[in-house]
Description:
40% helix; Rossmann fold; SAM-dependent_MTases_sf; 289 residues
Amino acid sequence: MSSSTQKNDSNDMEETYWNSAAGQKWVDFQHEMDSLLATVKDQLLTKTNIQKGEKILDVGCGTGATTRDSALLSGASGSVIGVDISALLLDCAKQVDVDPNAGSIDYLLADAQTHGFAEESLDVLLSRFGVMFFSDPVIAFANMARALKPGGRLHFVSWSYMNENPWFQIPRDVAIDQLGSVAPSDPHAPGPMAFADLERVSGILRDAGLQDVTATNEKIDLFYQGTLDAATYLACNVGPVMRVVKELGGKPEDVRAISEEIAERMQNFVVPGGLSIPASLNFYSACKE
Length: 289
Ligand SMILES: C[S@@+](CC[C@H](N)C(=O)[O-])C[C@H]1O[C@@H](n2cnc3c(N)ncnc32)[C@H](O)[C@@H]1O
């Protein structure tokens, strides 16, 4: 952690999670995840409409796909800070080449909920799937908003509900069918689907002091470039399967059975060159007065 970070134990579980085997999976499958989520990145960056010279914070930047593209859009006079709580993912991000025409990039290992960012130093806060893991989202957004200049803006994308996102729903259902139910969890607890409720999240942004909040649900298709077997392997490694297997003590033969059934249920998504998987996403925006 950076020395200017005020330590708040409340995100310790997420810090542990993203620095453990689960975070390592995002590193191991970096190219496949970036390819699968490329359409999401492009939609987010279109909405963010980055201008040359802008100063940007990419929140929960992971292995840095959105950081690098934001730096290119902001040009040589712009700059991007990619902040993440995972040293594993940031180390991976730092090793990826950056376009010579891009603005400067700094990767910062810190908890975005509590880090002391320079006040009124940024034009844009953005995130692809990196803001749903805060123990206290109001405190987190208020903290990050302090770093925005007056008139600065926020754009991020999160997942909508599980039952609208087969990329999560199928592997989770199959793992539970194989191993039994996991304990029910609070739908608003930190996690990939925590920001599914547009009204609730809009309230969080307003409570954090942001203005002109917009929240829209959009249906898009994720494209997995590769075979059904490779997509199934990815789904067994990144996402809910490993969580369920770990929690319920699944054995290698369970994972094999889960994998076969996921492939069966994802068969419908196969198209020439890969898989086209429907997704339901929430895009949020807001401004600082
Ligand atoms: C689902 S991944 C998304 C990564 C990246 N934005 C992408 O789209 O590839 C969520 C990321 O948020 C990071 N994260 C979770 N809680 C965080 C926090 N409190 N502060 C900073 N980063 C956090 C995780 O380490 C992880 O890299």
